[in-house]
């Protein structure tokens, strides 16, 4: 058995080889960019009028007088040209600055008259006041978004403005979520007394979805021969296989030996932790296999503490740096294991994050997951975890 910190180390050394694919602009949201994005033209691409008002020649600065209007420069219209330096052109925000115009005076500083527009005040207007000058934000070919960036709504707007209808992103791994166990029936079925509906695979699929990964659900029964045949097929079709159940000491916990017979090499089996002690992890040439212990809270903890961060890491997403919270009540756990305590976190007036232990059963108590929002990682060195101590907190909900 290994410590949680060793699990982190082992996982840190395993990686998937993911290809690059091209997706539609909007489908790139949440994905990892696989190309550098450069400015296709200057930003802004022309001297852009920044206020609705009148445009005048710089020789007229300071002259609080009536300006005759030669025309209106609307946004989206070709560039006009001021013929007479004494006159003005009405200019709209977003329009190209007309030729021979160097200053924009907002309407608020003017007054409409019958023969034109009178400027009442120039405030501190200078040459190019209220003009967003061409290329002042970015120059053509400047790097706008770097390869490796996780695309958010901010980047989608940038991609749109440079005309990227198709975007190169890192391909997502193909993930199978596999429930094992003869006691499991479908969600739409009525279980017999000794059966239960499968839930782990749905919560795993949901966690994956929350992190931008799609997955397919399968159910395999506790029959060694059929496990061999079916897992061998899944191995061909998927990059990551996530199992729940079938990895402990039971007579029908066949997964570790089935994996071995299929050439999936064990990296570790057993972590000095509760819940999730029987966690098995291994890999073959192409696939990575997470075999999570079947008790629902164990599956959930192993997924959120290890698997999801590892997957995010594969896509180069910004590392989730676990934060800390202050235990608000003494908690006793005297086994030589790291204990992941289910807690509800909250802020106090002091601005610090506190964690309140959530009462309930053990790793089979699925219903307790909704009362808590995080796990507190309690070290095995001490038996009594005192109120006021700080521990690493792993959120699974805000
Ligand atoms: N002799 C020992 N027995 C057990 C040990 C041990 O060290 N020695 N470890 C216990 C711990 S800790 C856990 S956790 C479980 C892990 O068991 P498995 O991974 O083998 O899982 P199963 O035996 O298949 O199932 C355990 C439990 O979980 C329920 N389950 C399984 N899959 C699902 C699912 N998709 N949805 C909902 N619930 C599921 C299953 O019905 C069982 O109740 O082993 C302990 N035993
Ligand atoms: O990992 Mo087991 O989760 O302690 O029941
Ligand atoms: Mg078992």
UniProtKB/TrEMBL annotation:
Pfam family, one: MoeA_C
Molecular function as annotated in GO: metal ion binding; molybdopterin molybdotransferase activity
Pathway(s) where this gene product acts: Cofactor biosynthesis; molybdopterin biosynthesis
Entry cofactors: Mg(2+)
Broad EC category: transferase
Domain MoaB/Mog residues, every copy: 176-314
Catalysed reaction, written as an equation: adenylyl-molybdopterin + molybdate = Mo-molybdopterin + AMP + H(+)
GO CC aspect terms: cytosol
UniProt EC number: 2.10.1.1
GO BP: Mo-molybdopterin cofactor biosynthetic process
Keywords noted in UniProt: Magnesium, Metal-binding, Molybdenum, Molybdenum cofactor biosynthesis, Transferase
Similarity field: Belongs to the MoeA family.
Annotated function: Catalyzes the insertion of molybdate into adenylated molybdopterin with the concomitant release of AMP.
Protein name per UniProt: Molybdopterin molybdenumtransferase
């Amino acid at each position: 058995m290994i410590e949680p910190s060793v699990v982190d180390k082992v996982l840190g050394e395993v990686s998937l080889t993911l290809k690059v694919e091209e997706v539609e602009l909007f489908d790139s949201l949440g994905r990892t960019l696989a190309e550098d994005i450069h400015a296709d033209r200057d930003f802004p691409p022309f001297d852009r009028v920044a206020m609705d008002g009148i445009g005048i020649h710089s020789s007229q600065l300071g002259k609080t007088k009536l300006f005759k209007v030669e025309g209106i420069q609307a946004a989206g219209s070709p560039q006009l040209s001021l013929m007479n330096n004494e006159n003005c052109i009405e200019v709209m925000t977003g329009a190209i600055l007309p030729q021979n115009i160097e200053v924009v005076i907002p309407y608020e500083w003017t007054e409409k008259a019958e023969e034109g527009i009178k400027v009442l005040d120039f405030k501190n207007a200078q040459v190019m006041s209220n003009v967003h000058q061409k290329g002042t934000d970015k120059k053509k070919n400047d790097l706008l978004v770097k390869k490796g960036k996780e695309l958010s709504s901010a980047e989608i707007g940038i991609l749109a403005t440079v005309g990227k209808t198709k975007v190169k992103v890192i391909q997502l791994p193909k993930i199978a979520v596999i429930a094992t166990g003869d006691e499991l029936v479908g969600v739409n079925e009525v279980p017999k007394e000794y059966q239960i509906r499968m839930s782990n695979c749905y919560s795993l699929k949901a966690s994956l979805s929350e992190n931008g990964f799609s997955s397919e659900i399968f159910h395999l029964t506790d029959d060694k021969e059929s496990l061999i045949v079916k897992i061998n097929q899944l191995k061909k079709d998927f990059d990551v296989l996530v199992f729940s159940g079938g990895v402990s000491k039971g007579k029908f916990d066949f997964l570790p030996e089935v994996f071995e017979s299929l050439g999936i090499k064990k990296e570790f089996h057993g972590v000095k932790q509760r819940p999730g002690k029987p966690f098995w992890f291994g890999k073959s040439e192409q696939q990575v296999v997470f075999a999570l212990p079947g008790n629902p809270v164990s599956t959930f903890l192993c997924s959120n503490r290890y698997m999801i961060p590892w997957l995010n890491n594969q896509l180069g997403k910004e590392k989730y740096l676990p934060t800390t919270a202050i235990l608000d009540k003494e908690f006793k756990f005297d086994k030589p294991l790291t204990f992941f305590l289910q807690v509800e976190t909250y802020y106090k007036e002091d601005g610090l994050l506190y964690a309140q232990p959530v009462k309930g059963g053990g790793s089979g108590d699925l219903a307790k997951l909704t009362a808590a929002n995080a796990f507190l990682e309690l070290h095995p060195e001490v038996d009594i975890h005192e109120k006021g101590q700080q521990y690493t907190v792993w959120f699974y909900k805000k």
